[in-house]
Amino acid sequence: MSEQRAVILVSGGLDSATVLAMARAEGYACYTLSFDYGQRNRAELQAAERVSASLGDVEHKVVRLNLDSIGGSALTDAAIDVPESLTEGIPVTYVPARNTIFLSIGLGWAEVLGAQDIFIGVNAVDYSGYPDCRPEYIAAFETMSNLATRIGVEGRKTTIHTPLMKLGKGEIIRAGLDLGLDYSLTVSCYQASVEGFACGKCDSCRLRRQGFVDAGVKDPTRYI
């Protein structure tokens, strides 16, 4: 296999789009993976497809799950309100075990593709308190990956890439713009409309808006 393949987890948001642009710039053949997991924000799936196509993915796959069947998050349970102010501790927008589930499926696809590289847009600076966005979690998952897979047993190491881990939102945006990324294609809002308009009030919207301020560029987000 001459090309260096990588699986990129793409949610349709600002961070994962930037990671995809970075992976492409590094010369990877990018296989993008999104999840229809019962999230309230359906517009992000369309955004993920747009972003993947615009950045020249080899293949875009959507895996369907039913995390809404167990609930426990404002992103999957309509009975839990999306907060519009910062809260102490882990917020109700945390989806139980989401990154573990997503990375596990990404790992499986990577094995099928013969890819040893997986990219994910987690961030320890603007991570909203999610426990599965911390560097120690990623290190633990990578260790597990190389214990639990055939390619790991055969001595071919899987690497989980987190290029945004130590970057602020403004730095992330500047990096993406330098790579020609069109952020108007992305949707970050936790409760975006079907058409992709952002509420401008949720935690994700506030972080995104401040990021464009910090980057010193116009915010292309469509707000309600």
UniProtKB/TrEMBL annotation:
Q: Which co-factor is required?
A: Zn(2+)
Q: Answer yes or no on keyword Nucleotide-binding.
A: yes
* A GO term for molecular function: ATP binding
The family database entries (Gene3D superfamilies) matched by this protein are listed as: HUPs
Its Enzyme Commission number?
Answer: 6.3.4.20
Binding residue positions for Zn(2+): 189, 199, 202, 205
What does the record give as the reaction this protein catalyses? Answer: 7-carboxy-7-carbaguanine + NH4(+) + 2 ATP = 7-cyano-7-carbaguanine + 2 AMP + 2 diphosphate + 2 H(+)
Q: In which pathway does it act?
A: Purine metabolism; 7-cyano-7-deazaguanine biosynthesis
Cofactor binding remark: Binds 1 zinc ion per subunit.
Instruction: Write out the GO biological process terms.
Output: tRNA queuosine(34) biosynthetic process
Q: Which superkingdom is the protein from?
A: Bacteria
Keywords for this protein: ATP-binding, Ligase, Metal-binding, Nucleotide-binding, Queuosine biosynthesis, Zinc
Q: Which annotated residues bind ATP?
A: 10-20
Q: SUPFAM superfamilies this protein is in?
A: Adenine nucleotide alpha hydrolases-like
Query: Which family, according to UniProt?
Result: Belongs to the QueC family.
Q: What does this protein do?
A: Catalyzes the ATP-dependent conversion of 7-carboxy-7-deazaguanine (CDG) to 7-cyano-7-deazaguanine (preQ(0)).
Q: What is this protein called?
A: 7-cyano-7-deazaguanine synthase
Q: Which organism is it from?
A: Pseudohalioglobus lutimaris
Q: What is the lineage of its organism?
A: Bacteria, Pseudomonadati, Pseudomonadota, Gammaproteobacteria, Cellvibrionales
